[in-house]
């Protein structure tokens, strides 16, 4: 499984397989790194499946091994998102349970190995139901939730923005709708990046999930407001900087892309795969996009691949130990889940 970008400068990229296990074969799951392990929750085990999985698999990238966690009472979910709280609780937010879209929070206490159903605090105003949304950590107790609410018959013509506050001591959560909206999006991704230009700070950008090619700002914070420390990946950052300066990528952003992956690597947002809304056939993609925020205005770089074995939708990428991992997703047929874990290799 490899995709390369050729050129006179010898620049290229590939997804290099490093592990394979049937337990990992799923799509539209969540994948969250905690203490050097990837926690995979739920998802669909095959295309066309109506019932999401309720199991949890823990993958150890150092050992290349996956095990099913025996915690009982796991939520049956797909098209959800997950975030860590207090370095201990893995909070699963919203998603599809096989019959409806939810806005509830279920939390795995990773120290006790027990699932907990947290309750809504007084004054919480939850969304009508969430699926294919995003949850981004702003602090250890606060998430920013973005995405379209409800089903296809009840969804609004715009996307709502919510702040979700989590209290692990009380086992409660509280939604507050923000006073502004975004373009109606579903299957998008979100990236918390430092703002370019003379006034440093942070901005939350939404990519894809609609026909627009441009990212949309779903929040802006002045310098010092965001305390989140992203994983350090100096080698990968250097390689991405070399790749975008190689002249091999076109200055083109993704248009009409959904159910792709996104990981923040320093000043770069790295997007891969997904499903395009611009074609009726051959909709699953194998393209690598890099969004470079080092200067204002930020720039897109597009690195396509001719390898159909790279096509992925409903997958996840995870940054750990200066490497970007690709986990799960359906392949070219949109039905067969990949059991592989791969690492992004960049050749400069």
UniProtKB/TrEMBL annotation:
<keyword id="KW-0880">Kelch repeat</keyword>
<dbReference type="InterPro" id="IPR015915">
    <property type="entry name" value="Kelch-typ_b-propeller"/>
</dbReference>
<dbReference type="Pfam" id="PF24681">
    <property type="entry name" value="Kelch_KLHDC2_KLHL20_DRC7"/>
</dbReference>
<dbReference type="InterPro" id="IPR042941">
    <property type="entry name" value="KLDC9"/>
</dbReference>
<protein>
    <recommendedName>
        <fullName>Kelch domain-containing protein 9</fullName>
    </recommendedName>
</protein>
<dbReference type="GO" id="GO:0030332">
    <property type="term" value="F:cyclin binding"/>
</dbReference>
<keyword id="KW-0677">Repeat</keyword>
<comment type="subunit">
    <text>Interacts with CCNA1.</text>
</comment>
């Amino acid at each position: 499984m490899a995709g390369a970008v050729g050129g006179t400068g010898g620049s290229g990229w590939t997804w290099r397989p490093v592990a394979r296990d049937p337990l990992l074969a799923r799509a539209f799951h969540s994948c969250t790194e905690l203490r050097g392990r990837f926690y995979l929750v739920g998802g669909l085990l095959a295309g066309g499946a109506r019932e999401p999985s309720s199991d949890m698999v823990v993958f150890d990238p150092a050992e290349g091994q996956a095990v099913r966690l025996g915690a009982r009472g796991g939520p049956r979910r797909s098209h959800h998102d997950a975030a860590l709280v207090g370095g201990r609780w893995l909070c699963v937010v919203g998603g599809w349970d096989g019959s409806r879209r939810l806005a509830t929070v279920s939390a795995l206490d990773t120290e006790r190995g027990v699932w907990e159903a947290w309750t809504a605090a007084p004054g919480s105003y939850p969304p009508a139901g969430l699926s294919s949304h995003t949850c981004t950590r702003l602090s250890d107790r606060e998430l920013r939730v973005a995405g379209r609410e409800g089903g296809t018959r009840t969804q609004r013509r715009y996307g709502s923005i919510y702040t979700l506050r989590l209290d692990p001591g009380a086992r409660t959560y509280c939604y507050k709708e923000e006073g502004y909206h975004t373009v109606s999006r579903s299957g998008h991704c979100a990236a918390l990046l430092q703002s370019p230009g003379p006034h440093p700070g942070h901005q939350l950008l939404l990519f894809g999930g609609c026909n627009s090619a441009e990212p949309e700002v779903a929040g802006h914070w002045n310098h010092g407001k965001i305390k989140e420390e992203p994983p350090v990946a100096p080698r990968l950052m250097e390689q991405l900087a070399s790749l975008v300066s190689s002249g091999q990528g076109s200055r083109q952003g993704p248009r009409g892309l959904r159910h792709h992956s996104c990981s923040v690597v320093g000043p770069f947002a790295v997007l891969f795969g997904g499903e395009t809304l611009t074609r009726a056939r051959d909709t699953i993609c194998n393209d690598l996009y890099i969004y470079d925020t080092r200067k204002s205005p930020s720039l897109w770089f597009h690195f396509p691949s001719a390898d159909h074995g790279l096509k992925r939708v409903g997958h996840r990428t995870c940054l750990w130990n200066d490497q970007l991992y690709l986990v799960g997703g359906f392949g070219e047929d949109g039905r067969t889940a990949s059991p592989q874990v791969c690492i992004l290799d960049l050749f400069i």
